[in-house]
Amino acid sequence: FSEYWDAIPPITRFILLMNIALSLAVSLELVSSFQLYFNWHSIANKGQWYRILTSLFHQGELQPHNFFEFLIFYWNSSRLEQQDFRNRPGDFVFFIFFIYSSSLVCASFVGLKFLQTCLSTSMIYLWSKRNPNDTIEIMMIYSLKAKFLPLLFLASHFLFHTAKKEELVGICMCHLYYFAVDVVPKIPETYKLNVLKTPAWLSAVCAHLIVNEQDHL
Predict the structure, then answer these.
(1) 57 Cβ neighbours under 8 A, 6+ residues apart
(2) Do residues 171 and 164 touch, judged by C-beta distance below 8 A?
(3) What's the pTM?
(4) pLDDT by residue (tens digit) across 71-88?
(5) For residue 151, what pLDDT band results from cuts at 50, 70 and 90?
(6) Is 66 left (phi over 0), alpha (psi -120 to 50) or beta?
(7) Which of 1, 32, 53, 147 could disulfide-link 132, Cβ–Cβ 3.0 to 4.6 Å?
(8) Closest-CA residue to 76 (of 159, 168, 8, 151)
(9) Alpha-carbon distance 77 to 122, whole Å?
């Protein structure tokens, strides 16, 4: 098992570990989901600042559908970390930070409770935008171009009445990121302008931590 676990890219592994740990804690009744969700009133008036972090990683109790959510997250996050953000851990962390921070802002206005779904959906969207012509096998039955994956994802959730505001927020926030990082710098009038450039110090810290971890594996 340790070999498979160590093979997971480090940033993906950390987030996945936080997801599983919080879900396990709720399942064992060590904490309640009511103590973990995003609640601005509790944060501002009761000083429960930890909710900012727990709402980003918690997905509920360990139930069958959550294992499927973990798998979807692992699949999309590891692909981004190993392909689109290969050798650029700082950029990947900054992307996650942008999605999480913008989702927190939205949570205050549209009543979002748990924000992990925002990140998972944004990863699907970003990968599909950067790899639009890649082909995906759906349940070994039919093939689908990657650019249609977010639409299929949303349609399936609406069909089964499981659609959530978090998914729409994740797509909208990721489109802002994609437009700022991948589109604006290529427009002649704004050539090489990157308003979401990763801070140099973050790139250096992330690269140092990744190298140290690989040395200990």
Answers:
(1) 15, 18, 19, 22, 116
(2) no
(3) 0.89
(4) 888 988 999 999 999 999
(5) confident
(6) alpha
(7) 147
(8) 8
(9) 10
Residue type at position 111: G
* CA dihedral of 17, 85, 108, 43, whole degrees rounded to 10: 40
Q: What type of residue sits at position 163? A: A
Buried-state track 16-44, b at ≥16 Cβ within 10 A, e below 16: bebbbebbebbeeeeeebeebbbbeebbe
CA distance 110 to 38: 12
Two tokens, residue 116: 């992990």
Alpha carbon distances (Å) from 126 to 27, 119, 132: 32, 10, 10
Q: Which of 108-112, 140-144, 211-215 has the highest mean pLDDT?
A: 108-112
Return the bridge partners of 138, or none.
142
The neighbour count for residue 168, using CB atoms within 10 Å, is: 15
- DSSP assignment of 99-147 equals HHHHHHHHHHHH-----HHHHHHHHHHHHHHHSTT-EEEETTTEEEEGG
Tokens 């987030």 sit at which residue?
A: 15
**42: nearest Cα among 51, 30, 33:** 51
Q: What is the mean pLDDT of residues 191-212?
A: 88
List residues bridging with 144 in a β-sheet.
Answer: 136
